[in-house]
Each structure stands twice: as C-alpha cells, then as structure tokens.
Write a structure and sequence with these properties.
The radius of gyration is 21 Å and the shape is globular. By secondary structure, it is mostly helical. The chain has a two-stranded antiparallel sheet with strand order 1-2. The longest helix has about 35 residues. It contains 17 helices and two strands.
C-alpha cells in the first residue's frame, strides 16, 4: 500500500472501531447500570436500542450527507459528536438521561461507519479492495468482541461510567490522522437530503421498537402499544413509498435490482439480527445467572477475538480470489453450530466444556462470513455509489440488531435465565442458518474477468448480470 492508502485504512478502522466498540462495551456494563440506576430488562433493552434506533434510522441520512458535504467532513463531525455524547453518558444521573444521551450518540455513530467504509471502497479496487475490507473487518469486528473485555475490566476496577470514556483516545488519534492525510474532500453539489424520508424512517423504527419493548410491561391490548405499533408500521410503509417516488431518496430502491446487493442484504438482516442478541445475552447471563464478575464475563469472548484477528484479512483475500458465495454459506452454518453448543450450558456452568467450544466455533464462523459478505454487497455496486450502498447495508445490519434486541423479552421468555439463554441460542442458530441458505441460493460469484456494463439506471454496474463483485 501507498502511504495515503495506509492512512485511509487506519482512519476507516479507527472511526468504525469507535462506533463498534461503544456498541458492545455497553453489554457487559448493563448489570452494573441496573444496580446503580435501577430498572429491569426493559431498561436494559432501551439502553441498547436507544443507540440503535437513531443509528439505524439516520445512517441513511449520513450517506447522503457524506455525498453532499464530503466524507472527511462528516467523519470529523461524527467523531466530535460521539466524544461529547460519550462524556454525557458517563455523567448520567438517571436512566432517562442515559437513554437520551445514547440516542444522541447513535446520531453521531451514524456519521462514522458509512463514511469510513466508503473511503475504503473509493480508494481500493479489485482484490486489493477485498483484502482492505478484510483488514477493516478484522479490526472493527474485533472491537465488537474486545469491547466486553475492556468494559468488564473497567466495571470491576473503576465504574461502568468509565466504560464510555474508552473511545476518547481513538477519537483523538483519528482526528489527527485526518489532519495528516491532506486529502481533498469529494463532494457532490447536486446531492440532496431526503429529510421527509428520514422522519418517516425514524418514526417507523421508534414506534415499532417502543411497542416491541413495552408490550412485555403493558400488554398488546394497551392502546399505547397497538397504537405505536400501527404508527410505526404505517410510517415504515410510507418510508418505502417515499423512497420509490423521491427525486433523491435516502435508500435508492434501484440498488436492489442488483442480485448480490439485495440477496446479500437479506442475509445481512438474519446474520446481524442474530449477532445483535447472541453476545448480549451470553454476557448478561454470565453476570446475572452464573454470578461471574464483569471482567470474566468479558474475557469469555477473547478466543473469538483472537480468531477474528488472525483470519479475517486472509478470508477477505481468499474471497476476493475465489468469490464470496462459499464463504457466506459455510460461515453462517458454522455459527449455527456454535450457537447450538450453548445448549450444553447447565446450572453447574463449566466454561471450558460448555462455553469455550461455542465461542471458538462461533468465532471461526464469524471470521469466514463478515469480510466476504461486505465485499459481495459493496463490490456489486459501482464505486460512485459506494457511499449510499455502504449506508444501506449498515442500516440493514443495525436495524436487524435493533429489532431482535427489542424482541428480546419474547425470545428469552421475559428474563435472561438459563432457559432464556437456551431459547436465544435456538433462535439465533435458526437465523444464522437462514442467512446461510439465502447466501447459497442468492449470491453469485463474479466471473474472473468482467467488463463493466450499463445498469438499468444508466450507471455502471461491475457485472455481466448486474450481480457480481469485482474480480
């Protein structure tokens, strides 16, 4: 890589690392938050989902803002906002203040991931792009797994409040690297922001999530619940109608004419929906059910972190060489096995025999899956649309996790007990398996050499059938 390419990769990794790290450290801190601030499972769900609601709804707006104002500027704003929101969370006096601050943090997080990944896809091409995405994936996914380890140590040795200050240093380093890069920002002065679509998406997700979380407390017969559910679903339908008719939609529906894009996003929905609750439930159960300290609960995922670091970049390179289909099929099936191994966990928990095998198998499957999945989806779209394609894929992933967390009370049976852990393991195993089937049936490997053709919307699509990744 050239110096500029290395800087771009580091900036993308650190910016995404901040968002992913903060999205996972919260899991290990939830029991400590509950002890200090009060609240039950519903409050824990809101602490997680307040972040995901704004992140999932506004990540599409961030893609448009990135095109309009430039990726580097949006990255700077996102980093600064994320840091300020993190400080507010650390100082939260009650659950409501914390939940609102988490929502603000999600807004800033929405500015980070699409812009950072779009920097990679606009800088690298072909197999080099697949390898760069593999390196990005290993680092950012490792953040999702390292987060509980760091968070657990902070909770046990200091306070859960310090958990949200972990990202201060990487934010400062990333802002410095952006200054060092000296890269002119790319802006599209003709780009516009579909604010009406953003409002519909936010209301739709907010209403739906509110109903799913609060129905466990109020019941579906309560007018507040069915009213918010009706409003949420109607707003989401309105959002889709708006995207089909708007001049500059947040989520251009013509992207879904590309086979690898739409089938890859369906697989993403199932895979990331399962990821959204699998780690959360295990981490909370180890603390509340097995009475482990937060540090040990976080350390339980360390083997998967090591596997991700060792394998993701290699898998990304192999996917660029041989195509993503086999990896996207085998990887989720391996994760399915990893989840089913959690069914061996008993009241007399033995980490080495009951938890570690699941963690190792799961980490292997995740390493096989994530880089090829990202490469297949983004590589099927012309680089000029990489920003919006990245935003759509990230929105699908975050919204999938948002909805499964909102349904956690139903999935786990109302509490994260041993029975709740087993129920969650079965549900997530089934979701991973569906993701594998979607990939097997829908994903197509690119030809070894393909000339660009004009897509139906007049833009260049890198495929001879509108569904291939770069060869």
């Amino acid at each position: 890589m050239t110096r500029a390419e290395r800087l771009v990769l580091w900036i993308a990794i650190l910016a995404s690392f901040v968002a992913f790290l903060d999205g996972t450290v919260v899991n290990v801190a939830l029991p400590a938050m509950q002890r200090e601030l009060g609240g039950g499972l519903t409050t824990q769900q809101w602490i997680v989902d307040a972040y995901l609601v704004t992140l999932g709804a506004l990540i599409l707006v961030a893609g448009s803002l990135s095109d309009l104002f430039g990726r580097i500027l949006i990255l700077r704003i996102g980093l600064a906002g994320f840091g300020l929101a993190s400080i507010a969370i650390a100082a939260a006096p009650d659950p409501l203040f914390l939940i609102v601050a988490r929502g603000v943090q999600g807004i800033a997080g929405a500015l980070l991931v699409p812009s950072s990944l779009a920097l990679i896809t606009s800088t690298f091409r072909g197999p080099a792009q697949a390898r760069a995405i593999g390196i990005w994936t290993s680092a950012t996914t490792a953040a999702m797994l390292v987060g509980p380890v760091l968070g657990g140590a902070f909770v046990d040795m200091l306070s859960w409040r310090f958990v949200f200050l972990i990202n201060v240093l990487p934010i400062a380093v990333t802002l410095w690297l952006l200054a060092v890069l000296h890269r002119p920002d790319v802006r599209n002065e003709d780009a516009t922001v579909d604010w009406a679509g953003a409002v519909l998406c936010t209301v739709g997700l907010g209403g739906t999530v509110f109903a799913l979380i609060e129905q466990d407390r109020l019941g579906w017969a309560d007018p507040v619940i069915w009213g918010s559910a009706t409003l949420g679903v109607a707003a989401l339908v309105g959002f889709l109608v708006r995207q089909a008719t708007a001049r500059s939609p947040l989520m251009p529906l013509d992207l879904f004419r590309v086979r690898n894009f739409w089938t890859g996003n369906v697989a993403t929905a199932f895979i990331y929906g399962a990821l959204g609750i699998s780690g959360l439930v295990l981490t909370v159960y180890l603390q509340q059910g097995a009475r482990w300290p937060a540090t040990l609960a976080g350390l339980s995922a360390l083997p998967a972190t090591i596997i991700m670091i060792l394998l993701s970049s290699r898998i990304g390179a192999l996917s660029g060489r041989f195509g993503p289909r086999a990896f996207m099929t085998v990887g989720p099936l391996v994760m399915t096995l990893g989840m089913l191994l959690l069914l061996t966990v008993s009241d007399h928990l033995d980490y080495w025999l009951q938890v570690l095998p699941s963690i190792v198998v799961f980490g292997l499957g995740l390493s096989i899956t994530v880089a090829p999945l990202t490469s297949a989806i983004l590589g099927s779209i012309d680089p000029s649309r990489s920003g919006i394609a990245s935003a759509v894929n990230n929105a699908v992933a975050r919204i999938a996790g948002l909805l499964t967390v909102a349904m956690l009370g139903v999935i786990a049976g109302g509490a994260i007990t041993l029975a709740g852990l087993h129920r969650t393991a079965l549900v997530t195993a089934a979701m991973f398996a569906v993701g594998a089937v979607c990939s097997l049936i829908g994903i197509r490997n690119p030809p070894r050499a393909a000339a660009p053709e004009s897509g139906s919307d007049g833009e260049q699509v890198r495929s001879d059938s509108s569904d291939a990744t770069p060869s």
